[in-house]
Amino acid sequence: MLTRRIAMTAATVLVTLSIPVTSHAKDGPDGDSGINCTLYTCEVEVNVPGQGGGQAGSSESTGGTGASGSSDDDDTDKAVCTYKLADPQPPAASADWDGHKPGDGAVYEQTCGWGDVDGNTIVRLVWLADPPEQEAVDPAVLAQRAVDSMTLLGPDIASPRRSGKYTVGVPMWMWVNQSATTYGPNTASASAGGITVTATAKVSKIVWQMGDGASVTCNGPGTPYTSTEGMAPSPTCGHVYSKTSAGAQGGRFPVTATSTWTIDWQGGGQAGQLTEVRQTNVQVAVGEVQVVR
Fold first, then answer.
1. Which of 55, 149, 182, 279 could bridge 156 with an S-S bond, Cβ 3.0-4.6 Å?
2. 131-143 pLDDT, tens per residue?
3. Where in the chain is the domain with CATH 2.60.40.10?
């Protein structure tokens, strides 16, 4: 058999092989080959890059009842470890006993995970003299982990269209298509240490930078235009250009729609709120109607 488990740390990858061996290899320059073998496991350590945290977009957070009230990049580097009694216990001659005899403490399976999007974990056997106290799990960290598992995207712009042609002085209607990933609601959960946190995300506002210096804030997805509306302005989200895009780069105004995702979470006896920001860009051509007399 090949790999039994792969464990990743900031400095090493620990690969445990299920192969029958009876001794420790001692072939390295210091008398240690870096391969540690027991009667039923073999562990090999090699260097790997450090664990880094990060995510697309930017985030803010505000605490709720009992919450820590903050979320920063350091949370993604914080390991959450849980323990489970190894069953069955390793053979008495196993190095997992760390020089102790069966009955003198016990061997536990330790699982440590990070809140990053890759879901990296360490799984290893450790000897402990006394039953471990499970490490306290911060529900706010689990909330961010739940958010990281969502695919939160920028607005799915329906109007203005890239291929559309718009006119100075004519009301432009802006709206977006709604889905779980582009508008919400989007719900996900994360668990560790016997605690489960559930987070629900939804776009609370969209800020449109129109490319002509104007900014429009819309508190909803906008209203789709129909021909029966004629020249009426949008009742929920619109803009009127006062100049053409002829002087803009490429002859088009760069329009940016920035959505603010508000995420409410609860679990582990706590609750709070997180904020994520996403953007979508579109180029808009604005001309003018020439009147011939």
1. 182
2. 877 667 889 999 9
3. 143-287
pLDDT at 103: 84
SS3 labels along the chain: CCEEEEEECCCEEEEEECCCCCCCCCCCCCCCCCEEECCCCEEEEEECCCCCCCCCCEEEEEECCCCCCCCCHHHHHCCEEEEEECCCCCCCCCHHHCCCCCECEEEEEEEEECCCCCCCEEEEEEEECCCCCCCCCCHHHHHHHHHHHCCCCCCEEEECCCCCEEECCCCEECEEECCCCCCCCEEEEEEECCEEEEEEEEEEEEEEECCCCCEEEECCCCCCCCHHHCCCCCCCCEECCCCCCCCCHHHCEEEEEEEEEEEEEEECCEEEEEEEEEEEEEEEEEECCCCCC
Specify the long-range contacts of residues 178-184, CB closer than 8 Å, at least 24 apart: 178/221, 181/150, 181/151, 181/152, 181/153, 182/153, 182/154, 182/155, 182/156, 182/259, 183/155, 183/156, 183/221, 183/259, 184/261
Cα torsion at 170, 175, 177, 178 (round to 10°)? -170
The pLDDT-based confidence of 79 (bands split at 50, 70, 90) is low
User: Which class is 143-287 in CATH?
Assistant: mainly beta
pLDDT at residue 55 is higher than 70: no
